[in-house]
Design brief:
By secondary structure, the chain is α+β, with helices and mostly antiparallel strands. It has one domain. The chain is 20% helix and 24% strand. A hairpin with a 4-residue loop joins strand 4 and strand 5.
């Protein structure tokens, strides 16, 4: 969860378990949302820079629905998302 640190900067941290085993990484921003998005972008970059690239997905999206820090975009790969079934 994002929180304010010295100087009014927002910070958000994360860890990823096996197989990446990434401990204590952080994203920063001018507000909570920017810190969270920066943190999620670092998660995506960590996955993309690992042997897991192209092998993991969430909801059918290889981007895992995470923001792309290099291009400044959040890609949702909507073509790969299944429509919810209606009862």
């Amino acid at each position: 969860m994002p929180y304010v640190v010295k100087g009014g900067v927002w910070k958000c941290g994360f860890e990823l378990g096996a197989p990446l085993n990434i401990r204590h990484r952080e994203g920063y921003g001018v507000d909570a949302l920017q810190a969270l998005l920066h943190c999620l972008g670092i998660v995506r970059a960590s996955i993309d820079g690992s042997p897991l690239r192209g092998k993991v997905h969430w909801g059918g999206m290889l981007s895992c629905g995470l923001p792309d820090l290099l291009n400044g975009q959040i890609q949702l790969d909507v073509a790969d998302i299944e429509s919810p079934s209606r009862p």
